[in-house]
């Protein structure tokens, strides 16, 4: 299983009134993790969009384990949990510097044509990308 890792310095603006990272920022970090994974594999999401395709989130699950605070560095670990004909599920771990798990999550995505929002298989759009996801996925569909 291939895992991409990306470090993020936590900014003051990402914290809430209690001094901990506001929960919605984890979703942004997950997007950064997905983008990093895709780039690590030699592809670009921006390139996919330029060709007229989008990959909307259709399901999201996140479990918060240990609060993170301003001044810390978060490590986002991202992998392909499963990849099928129309759906890709990414897995995430967000870690403290000492390795303590701050959050775990999954996000499920489909690929659609921008103009019609009709689902399309990644294999039809980019067979190399599809093959790489099939190769590195953690769980076979």
Descriptive report:
Helix content is 26%, strand content 34%. The protein has a single domain, classed as Hotdog Thioesterase (Thiol Ester Dehydrase, Chain A). The longest helix is centred in the first third of the chain and has 16 residues, at 25-40. The protein is elongated, with a radius of gyration of 16 Å. It has helices at 25-40, 45-50, 122-125, 127-136; strands spanning 4-9, 53-54, 57-64, 73-83, 87-95, 101-110, 112-113. A hairpin with a 5-residue loop joins strand 5 and strand 6 (101-110). It is an alpha+beta fold and 141 residues long. The protein has a 5-stranded antiparallel sheet with strand order 1-4-5-6-3. A two-stranded antiparallel ribbon has the order 2-7.
